[in-house]
Specification:
Blueprint: E1 4-9, H1 10-16, H2 25-28, E2 36-40, E3 44-49, H3 54-62, E4 69-74, H4 84-97, H5 104-124, H6 129-144, H7 147-153, H8 159-168, H9 180-192, H10 198-213, H11 217-220, H12 223-235, H13 246-267, H14 272-288, H15 299-308
Parallel strand pairs: 1-3
Antiparallel strand pairs: 1-4, 2-3
Helix pairs in contact: 1-3, 3-14, 4-5, 4-6, 4-12, 5-6, 5-13, 5-15, 8-10, 10-13, 13-14, 13-15
Length: 310
C-alpha cells in the first residue's frame, strides 16, 4: 500500500521538543501519551495535541506560526477514508479562516456561506469537490473586494440567541490553575449567568460585549483567537466526515468562539498566558460535559443560529 500524507503542525513539533514534562492540572492525572493525539485516516494522518493541556494550549494559540505544517509520508494506520469531498470542504474552511482581508467574525461568516452551499449540494446528492473549490474561490474574491465585510455588517442582530447562549454558560465549570479565591470568583461569575433575570442578563450581556470590545490584546495579537478556530478546523477535520448537518457543526464552532469571548470578558484583565489557561479549561470542560446541539433542528436553522452568535 502506498504511503500516505503525514502532517505535523509547528505547535506539535515544539511541544514534542520540550525537555520537561508538563505539570498542568490536566497532565497531572492524565493517561500515558497525553496530550498527543493522532488522527489516523486511511489516506492521511494528522498529529495534534489535546489543548485541555495548558502548555499545549499555549503552543497552539500564542504562536502566530503554530499552524505551519511539516509534511512527510508514512504507512497507513487508519481505516476511515477521508473522501475527496470532506477533504476539500475542510481545506476550503481553513483557507477562509486565514484569509488576510477578513476579520475573525467575517471569516466565520464566510465559512457559514460555504457550508450553506455545501449542505445544498450534499442534500441534492451532487457532492463534487470541484464545486467546493469554485465556491471557495468566489468567496475569496468577494473578500478581496470588501463585499463579504459589507454583507456581514448587514446581518441583523438576534440578541435573544446570544442571551440564550450566555445563560447556558451558567453550567460551565472551569478547572483553573489559580489560587482558591480566583477560582471561586470565576465560578461565581459563571454560575450567576444561569439564574439572572432576563433584564439583568441583557444588561450583563451589553457590559460583557463592551468589555470584550475594549480588550486591546486581541487587536494586538489577533492570531490568538484565530488560532483557536484553526485548531478546531484542523483537529476535528471540520465539519467532520461522519455527519450530514453542517449547520449543527457550524453552530458548535461559533458557540465555542462566543464562549471564549464571554469568558475572557468575565475574567477581566488578560495576558496571553491567561487566555491560554481559560481556553484550555474550557476545552477540558467541553470534553467532559459538552452541551449538545439540538439535533431536531434543520441544518439551515442551526446555521442561522450560528451566524447570530457572531
Amino acid at each position: 500500500m502506498e504511503p500516505i500524507e503525514h502532517y505535523q503542525p509547528e505547535y506539535v513539533k515544539r511541544f514534542a521538543a520540550r525537555d520537561t514534562a508538563c505539570t498542568c492540572l490536566a497532565c497531572r492525572n492524565a493517561r500515558q501519551g497525553f496530550p498527543f493525539v493522532s488522527i489516523k485516516l486511511k489516506n492521511q494522518q494528522r498529529e495534534s495535541l489535546n489543548i485541555a493541556c495548558e502548555t499545549a494550549a499555549r503552543e497552539a494559540l500564542l504562536n502566530p506560526e503554530a499552524f505551519v505544517l511539516h509534511t512527510s509520508h508514512k504507512p497507513v494506520e487508519g481505516e476511515t477514508l477521508l473522501s475527496a469531498w470532506h477533504k476539500t470542504l475542510n481545506q476550503q474552511c481553513i483557507n477562509l479562516a486565514i484569509h488576510p482581508s477578513l476579520s475573525l467574525e467575517e471569516r466565520l461568516y464566510a465559512m457559514g456561506v460555504l457550508l450553506s452551499k455545501a449542505q445544498q449540494y450534499h442534500d441534492n446528492g451532487t457532492k463534487d469537490p470541484v464545486q467546493l473549490v469554485s465556491i471557495g474561490e468566489q468567496l475569496s474574491g468577494l473578500a478581496d473586494q470588501g463585499v463579504l465585510a459589507q454583507q456581514f455588517a448587514l446581518l441583523p442582530t438576534i440578541v435573544e440567541n446570544q442571551l440564550a447562549a450566555l445563560k447556558e454558560m451558567g453550567a460551565i465549570r472551569l478547572n483553573l490553575d489559580l489560587p482558591m479565591a480566583g477560582k471561586m470568583a470565576m465560578a461565581l461569575k459563571l454560575s450567576e449567568l444561569a439564574i439572572m433575570s432576563p433584564s439583568r442578563l441583557a444588561e450583563h450581556h451589553q457590559a460583557l460585549n463592551a468589555q470584550w470590545q475594549a480588550m486591546a490584546l486581541f487587536n494586538e495579537q489577533p492570531w490568538i483567537l484565530n488560532n483557536a478556530v484553526i485548531y478546531q478546523l484542523y483537529h476535528t477535520v471540520f465539519p467532520g466526515f461522519d455527519g450530514d448537518n453542517y449547520g449543527e457543526t457550524f453552530l458548535r464552532l461559533t458557540r465555542y468562539v462566543f464562549r471564549i469571548k464571554m469568558i475572557c470578558a468575565l475574567y477581566g484583565e488578560l495576558t496571553p498566558d491567561t487566555v491560554a489557561m481559560l481556553v484550555s479549561a474550557l476545552e477540558e470542560w467541553m470534553q467532559q460535559d459538552p452541551l449538545p446541539a439540538k439535533r431536531q433542528n434543520s441544518a439551515d436553522y442551526n446555521l442561522l443560529c450560528g451566524l447570530s452568535l457572531l
